[in-house]
Amino acid sequence: MTDRAVAGTRPFAGFEWLLALRYLRAQRRAGFISVIAGFSFLGIMLGVATLIVVMAVMNGFRTELMDKILGLNGHAVVQGYDTPFVDYEAVDAAIETIPGVRLSFPFVEGQALASSPLGGFGALVRGMREADLQQLGSVARNVLQGTLEGFDKGEGIAVGARLAERLGLSAGDRLTLISPRGAATPFGTTPRIKAYPVVAVFEIGMSEYDGAFIFMPFEEAQAYFNMDGMATGVEVMIDNPDHVDALRRSLDEVIDRPIFVSDWRQRNQTFFSALEVERNVMFLILTMIVLVAALNIVSGLIMLVKDKGHDIAILRTMGATRGAVMRVFLITGASIGFVGTFAGLMLGMVICWNVESIRQGLSRLTGTELFSPELYYLSRLPAEMDAREVIAVVVMALVLSFLATLYPSWRAARLDPVEALRYE
């Protein structure tokens, strides 16, 4: 009889699973313990789901911002110094010979006041050739009104959607631009005021750009900003933004004139560094939710062990080993963590796949605009799940849940059956 009992206590035998799952079910006498187990399950599920959703949204936020910023501004800007940048065509031709360069083009840039009968707003005017603007996918593929065809032939301009909305403009209307860099007179420099027809309205999807950018034909911009024969710089876009250091070395080799090069990391260093710090801090803060849920498992199992002391003593006298008792409570606690983790994984994935619909639904329900584009720069809420991060979250939750079961299980295994049954 003893041999059969000992043989029945092989690791993770059927009776161990039977007891563990029985302890998880709510019973009249141990109802409070089951409530604690339920809250532990909910805590782990919500903690894992929240971690996955927050990390996915922050990844999507960073990716979308990089696509918008680098899709419009390029990965590097080459500017001349010491002498006027009149040889921009030769510099552009030299840059195009560098392997890995996807697109390069000269541009003229200046600030102006965009005015209409509804008011005036500051704008960044960028002069570009039609062929280059058509290759700038973030603009060419997102024209809401009008067209960019024949952009070089006329004096029309392309205006961002938010700026057009503020000024009450649509394709075909006229927009007045006022620049302080006007004609020089004996009485000083007078502002330059000129009205342009709006030939296109575009929406990049980043409110900061849609509310400030105006594109103008290259030669017209040269004339408007008193830069005849000159360019502000040459934008360079490469296949891999992370190879910008190699690009800087190549630029110094192929360009035979003094130049100043600024890349996307220098122009946006503070912004992307702040995003990375925020992402890491949010991960640590939200991990606390999972940790608190794991501590609930500890408290629930300790109370379960005290409540089941009589049952443990009987099992020991029937031949169950300490290891078998310990495994029963390990299975009980780990089951809560395992099921809660994977329920949280499923919940998090569902929310990530429908995060924009959820945002819109909550906005309609509350009557407020959640994640305002003016504050968060994007017109939609992005979510991009990273497989490595999701696996890391799941593994972390499983490990914490397993570690939470060790001490209560060890307490159960150390219980002396004689002491437990002395007063029975």
UniProtKB/TrEMBL annotation:
Q: Where is the ABC3 transporter permease C-terminal domain?
A: 284-417
Its GO CC terms are:
plasma membrane protein complex
Q: Which UniProt keywords apply?
A: Cell membrane, Lipoprotein, Membrane, Transmembrane, Transmembrane helix, Transport
- Which Pfam families does this chain map to? FtsX (PF02687), MacB_PCD (PF12704)
In what residue span(s) does the MacB-like periplasmic core domain sit?
40-253
Name the Gene Ontology biological process terms: lipoprotein localization to outer membrane; lipoprotein transport
Question: Does the keyword Zinc-finger feature in the UniProt annotation?
Answer: no
Question: What is the superkingdom listed in this entry's lineage?
Answer: Bacteria
Q: How does it sit in the membrane?
A: Multi-pass membrane protein
Membrane-spanning intervals of the chain: 32-58, 281-305, 325-355, 390-410
Membership in a protein family: Belongs to the ABC-4 integral membrane protein family. LolC/E subfamily.
State the protein's name. Answer: Lipoprotein-releasing system permease protein
Q: Which organism is it from?
A: Tepidamorphus gemmatus
